[in-house]
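Homework help board

Subject: predicted structure for assignment chain

Our instructor gave us this sequence and asked us to write out the predicted structure in token form, then describe one feature. I got the tokens but I'm not sure how to describe them. Can anyone check?
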Amino acid sequence: MADIFVNDVYKGTCKDGQKFVKEFRAKRRRGEIESQYNIYHKTDLDFVYVEGTPGRIRRPLIIVENGVSKLTDDILKQLENKEISFNDLLVNEVIEYVDALEEHDCYVALNESELTTEHTHLEISPTTIFGINTATMPFSEHDEPSRLMRGQKTVKQAVGMYALNYLKRKETDRHLLIAPQRPLTQTHIYDLLGFESHPAGQNLIVAVMSYEGYNMDDGLILNQSSIERGLERSVYYKLHVASELKYPGGMEDKITLPTQDIKGYRLEEDYRLLEGDGIISLGSYVTTSDVIIGKVSPPRFVEELEGFGQMVNLNVDSSVALKEDEYGTVSAVYIVENQPGEKEVNIVIRDPREPIVGDKFASRHGQKGIVGGTFKQSDMPFSENGIVPDAIFSPHSIPSRKTVSHVMEVLSGKVAALRGEYVDANPFDGEKEMDLRAELESYGFNSTGTEVMYDPRTGKKMKAEIYLGSLYYLRLNHQVSSKLQARGTGPVQLLTRQPAEGRMRGGGLKLGEMEKDALLSHGASLLLKERFSSDQTTALVCQECGYFADPFLFNYRSKCPICNSTRFDEVEVAYAFKLFMNELRSLGINPTFGVRDKFFEDVNTNKSNDSTLTYNPIEATTQTEEEEEEEETYNVSNKGGNN
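My token output:
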């Protein structure tokens, strides 16, 4: 007896689960059962699962019976002549939709030539085993699945032409590639999705070689002369918004040019670019701390005491200014009315960016890397035809990742540039590698794709032939100008007094265990003082009982709350440690400490053989001024005697 579950709810039993599933599928194909239901027989438990819940991902497969596909040549001709539609194939038991549950019972062939009597279904096209994004990658059947997944994720991060009406749009921040290109090597899915209307990269001449050590591992060397000609240049747009908010009591914000009599007025220079209405003019170049929207807000509390106890209104300056490392040109100014009926000002800042050292680039195959250096064209190697590469890619990152398609695209891009037509790199049924090599040879090049190259410094021929071709490279939105961070002194957190977090707040950089080890290994241990003394503070320790006292609550004349002692030692500790001690005390735990004078500790260490020199930290008392004067006199007289 087999138990039957419909949408994970137990419904009953049947005598033969396998026979039940077979009859169910036959009736579904004939239209006697709704086509959205899928069925699966779990033989080890003898459970039959019927699933019809919404939201499942289902895909069409060609039905196979006795090793023969039901999609015949006659049906294909009828489809081409538009005598029948795709829906007719569903009704006529040629194609059925299968979900992830029913796939457990399916034996799917990739090509019709592979069919056997054991197969139950056939793929409509081998490309359908890929996802939408993955199918756009050229020669994707030559890569590992994990590398394809990484590759399609990098495509999502690429800077491209995402919309043609970008000048009228107001996204928070966006990147736009100037002069994007269509890839020379592409798949059928690329055309179906219409990617040509919003491309995201450029075709670069790439040499696969190590050069001067600037492209170690995943590093990339770019031709500075190509960058100056516009290679992979992009624009970054940032939106700034301010509105006249309304508050209870009839008070509201005002977008205007702030005056000097308001609270929080900035420097006069910060408002220099504002016009009379408090809004910056179009085309102005702005940088850090420049005010772009002048705004005055009512006081947080309606009335505040000022001067001789008089009740006065204090308006507050709440203008919108650029934060640290923000700069650019005012690209657009919008003055609109938002949904609540308030006046709203939108300012779009444009910042053109060209590739610099530290920017991230990637191919469509998951080979991502950072620009390690840029060289002028006169310092780049060149081929015997005078071709100078736009980028130099290291060969050492290919073997471990097994991205054969990355190498094949360099070859196919070269063929496409020479023939003047795009190369079809559709997986499984695209152009073959040997055909591309033969075509390359017919153009007078080496079939391996390698060329003789010359050293620009000496003019001599390089010993090894260099793999040279065209590759579609993506500029990712991980740009170093958006991530650059440095800090000296700056804001600290109120609770822990440690440096604030975050680049936009002028926060500190995190220094963890591994960074600490790196500093120690370099012998730069004194640099750690900057890290560990960032929240340095003082605390008092009772000499009698070791009570840890807060200098803000106690002083040297105060009495210890535990033992009534008035003798305290001053110690330097991290404020976070003092905070931790206070938290322990709030839990009813009273930590105590013993203090040892560092001067006497050093003396004890240097004269460990002298048993007469001892020191008890608890019994030690502070020297009086008379005793210190006597000791100084004694030291001076001893020095004189020795001379």
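Reply (TA_rk): Your tokens look well-formed. For the description, you could write something like this. Residues 283 and 330 are 5 Å apart (CA to CA). That's the kind of observation they're looking for.
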